[in-house]
Design a protein that fits this description.
Two copies of one chain form a homodimer. With 251 residues, chain A is an all-alpha fold. Chain A is built from eleven helices and no strands. At the A-B interface, helix 3 and helix 4 of A face helix 3 and helix 4 of B. Chains A, B: One of its GO terms (molecular function) is pyrroloquinoline-quinone synthase activity.
Chain lengths: 251, 251
């Protein structure tokens, strides 16, 4: 079938309801909860070293998110928007006494046996992981602001994967307990607050059909960022299990 | 005299004391407290519309600083450094109930008769002002991290200019009172905390002579950013008083 590139410049804007449905439909089609690796992870089908590889690589994503949010804020002239957005950095980096989500992620990598400085050095992570997450950081620098905001909207789909993950991993793996899953429990309340704000912003500020379609494409892009990380993990640590040079090798 | 470009790659590093002295010497030579416009401002020699032009233009700098700090943070993989740095954004943008330094700056532009949306639109500011402050935002994105940190070190020289400004402006101008000068009073306590951290970071992390010289050059660059703003103001609103197209014109 031929790929048709549509020119949206002359098209009428979608209603807000249709625009929101188009965004949510991206999640139905390609959010990473559909990836084979996640099915294995949540279904208790992975060995400990495979869960470890996931946590080690996913650290790179966690670590990139506050940098992505700072990169976004560096472009925002609207002080009220910055004041709203900054709590995302607080959520990940912590603020004062609150240690933040990255610290909670390191509790998980602790439980999986990694020294912290190995994790934070990112040197055992798959190159494809690092390329994907840095593409996300660049995306929010290079795209129009509303499109950059739209790229965060995979958070709309996050609570259900987190709920599934908490239940599935607690049931299936003896190296996982409530303490270790604290990151995901916290995100259950943080992600909806963030995605509600971002969705409202995008629905309000993407006015032309072209802008709306760019926002929908941004959600697809972000799904690609997440999916590519699981592809790389699956290829390296499940099937065919070909670990690239320099990446972490289980003993 | 011929300009000599020195190759520092083979030179021995400066001692920390000499390195710090070289940084501080940049302030002695070219911090903007030496600029003719500041002498007029602090000496009570300006008319109200000239003070207004200064406040209107300097808003662009205030507004750029938290974006600069976010741009810096977007490059920092060290969570502890981000957790330290983020309070600079809080200082400018405020956090929760605290309104922040930009709000205090707008109290000053209020007192000088500008509608807030005119100020925040930045459309009456001189192009040279905007070019200078955006060069600062880009600098911290493009330079090595330690050099980016060094560019903030003009804060070492800020408290004395702020003290001089508070005294001079309160004595000289009937449109200035304590409330209006709140921004500078707050910076008297904020700037030393920031510059102490940044100086320690730079002294510790610039190890080679080449890195040290790049840090000293960063302080010079930042002095240029500040100086260029006053040159543009002086040219447009003092002597010869040639206001470029589109910039604010006093009635």
């Amino acid at each position: 079938m031929n790929q048709v590139v549509t020119d949206w410049r002359d098209a009428a804007p979608l209603s807000k309801a249709d625009f929101e449905a188009a965004i949510r439909n991206v999640g139905v089609e390609r959010y990473h909860d559909k990836h084979e690796f996640h099915k294995l992870l949540h279904g208790g089908k992975l060995q400990k070293h495979q869960v470890a590889a996931w946590a080690l690589n996913r650290y790179c994503y966690q670590e990139a998110v506050p940098r992505k949010d700072a990169a976004f804020m560096s472009r925002v002239h609207d002080r009220e928007l910055r004041r709203e957005w900054i709590h995302r950095i607080h959520d990940h980096d912590g603020l004062g006494e609150e240690a933040g989500g990255i610290e909670r992620w390191l509790v998980l990598t602790d439980a999986l046996g990694f020294p912290r400085d190995y994790v934070t050095s990112r040197r055992g992570a798959l190159p494809a992981t690092k390329f994907a997450v840095e593409a996300y950081v660049r995306f929010v620098v290079e795209q129009p602001l509303v499109v950059a905001v739209a790229s965060s909207l995979t958070e709309l789909f996050a609570p259900s994967i987190h709920r599934e993950r908490i239940v599935g991993m607690l049931e299936s793996y003896d190296f996982v307990d409530d303490h270790v899953m604290a990151y995901f429990k916290r995100r259950l309340s943080q992600a909806p607050r963030d995605s509600e704000f971002a969705l409202g912003y995008v629905l309000e500020n993407a006015r032309t059909r072209e802008e709306q379609e760019a926002c929908v494409a941004a959600v697809r892009f972000k799904c690609d960022v997440l999916w590519a990380q699981l592809d790389a993990l699956h290829h390296a640590y499940v099937t065919p299990g070909l670990i690239p040079p320099g990446a972490w090798r289980p003993e």
